[in-house]
Write a structure and sequence with these properties.
- This protein has one domain: Spore Coat Polysaccharide Biosynthesis Protein SpsA, Chain A (Alpha-Beta Complex), CATH 3.90.550.10.
- Helix content is 36%, strand content 23%.
- The chain has seven helices and eleven strands.
- The chain is globular and about 55 Å long.
Length: 237
């Protein structure tokens, strides 16, 4: 029996640094909300079976209506966002576990909905890494030098860039491993973490890198929206 592959898109953030009333994942670019651009790549990828979205309750109907309007067939429902990104991920994972009780240890690919330029190749390579090693953390090598500074005013040293990778999403695990990670975190009283990667790393899990992409950037500040808008406009010419 084929193991199902599920995409869990995280769309619960408020995007305070974007200085906009509407959360950045729901900002419309060329008449289309950001999360739909992200979702479309997963919708079109032949290996993705289902897509779930974590969002605030007030946006659930909007998400459902937009996916119907877009004609997406893989959308399978929403789960409620938490007060932190880690709580949102946990809600999504536990929701999938409850929804997919009869499935045999599906592969869960978590991805930020505000990384709308994810490519089909990135998804494919992520899945290959997960199937080979048991998990996959998308990472990208650095082209910049890194300064160590405790006060932000003067340099105290450097970290060789060859040893550094910037973690992106997707981050991909078997459902059983994710449930084990959250159970272990609960036992150790780890209530929050910056990301699924940092949580797994804190628990000293062996983690494997899947090559990322500079275009797979996260929309965080207003200039990111301007760049994304320019790319979309160029592609639609």
């Amino acid at each position: 029996m084929k193991t199902k592959v599920v995409a869990l898109l995280l769309a619960g953030g408020h995007g305070c640094r974007m200085h906009h009333e509407r959360p950045k994942q729901f900002l419309e670019i060329n008449g289309r909300p950001v999360f739909l651009y992200t979702m479309q790549t997963f919708e079109q990828h032949p290996e993705i079976d289902q897509i779930f979205i974590v969002c605030e309750k007030e946006w659930e109907e909007y998400v459902k209506n937009q996916t119907v309007k877009a004609g997406f067939r893989k959308f399978s429902g929403t789960f409620p966002a938490g007060t932190t990104s880690m709580e949102s991920i946990r809600n999504g994972i536990l929701g999938i576990a409850e929804t997919m009780k009869t499935e045999t240890d599906p592969i869960i690919m978590t991805h930020d909905s505000v990384r709308p330029l994810i490519s089909e190749q990135l998804i494919t390579e992520n899945l290959q890494t997960c199937r080979k090693h048991g998990n996959a953390i998308t990472g990208i090598t650095s082209c910049e030098a890194y300064i160590i500074s405790s006060d932000g005013k003067h340099s105290e040293g450097l970290i060789p860039r060859e040893a550094l990778y910037r973690a992106q999403t997707p981050q991909t695990f078997r459902l059983s491993e994710l449930l084990n990670i959250f159970e272990q975190a609960k036992q150790k009283n780890i209530l929050n973490s910056q990301s699924l990667y940092t949580l797994a790393a804190t628990l000293e899990r062996p983690l494997f890198i899947s090559q990322g992409d500079e275009l797979n950037f996260k929309l965080t500040v207003p200039t990111d929206i301007e760049v994304f808008n320019a790319i979309v406009t160029y592609k639609n010419r």
